[in-house]
């Protein structure tokens, strides 16, 4: 957890290159820890590297029960990489869920 915590500290300071390094190391040490891959995906999302973020969010999807936030991020990445139909399918599914107001606003911004 030391590497994960260090990566988190860099992420929160928006030092993304360092965060990527330490999330990657944490993932090598704990390959089954979905938190590591989710946070690494968030870093790429913040850097607007949506294809890379999408690949990692999908890795999380296969590794653990998917929280709504992960599905929302997958939909957002799909939309930002020109895969609007796939994004819409996920968005329509999420629209039926109990989401926080912030998540609902993000979902509505998908169109």
Rounded to an integer in angstroms, the radius of gyration calculated over CA atoms is 14 Å
Low-pLDDT parts are none
Structural class, please?
mainly alpha
Name the helix and strand elements from N-terminus to C-terminus, one letter apiece: HHHHHHH
Q: Would you tell me the overall average pLDDT?
A: 93
* N-to-C span: 38 Å
Count of beta strands: 0
Q: Describe the global form.
A: globular
Number of helices: 7
Sheet having the most strands: none
Strand content: under 5%
Helix content: over 70%
List the helices and strands and how they pair.
Blueprint: H1 2-12, H2 16-29, H3 34-46, H4 50-63, H5 68-80, H6 84-94, H7 101-108
How would you explain this protein's 3D organization?
This protein is an all-alpha fold and 111 residues long. The protein is 76% helix and 0% strand. It is built from seven helices and no strands. The model has no long low-confidence stretch (mean pLDDT 93).
Which characteristics define this entry?
single chain; 111 residues; mainly alpha; 7 helices; 76% helix
């Amino acid at each position: 957890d030391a590497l994960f915590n260090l990566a988190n500290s860099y992420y929160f300071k928006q030092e993304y290159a360092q965060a990527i390094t330490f999330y990657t190391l944490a993932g090598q040490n704990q390959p089954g820890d979905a938190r590591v891959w989710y946070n690494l995906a968030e870093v790429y999302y913040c850097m607007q590297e949506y294809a890379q973020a999408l690949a990692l969010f999908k890795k999380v999807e296969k590794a653990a029960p998917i929280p709504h936030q992960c599905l929302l991020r997958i939909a957002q990445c799909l939309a930002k990489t020109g895969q609007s139909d796939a994004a819409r399918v996920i968005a329509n599914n999420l629209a039926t869920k109990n989401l926080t107001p912030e998540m609902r606003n993000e979902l509505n911004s998908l169109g």
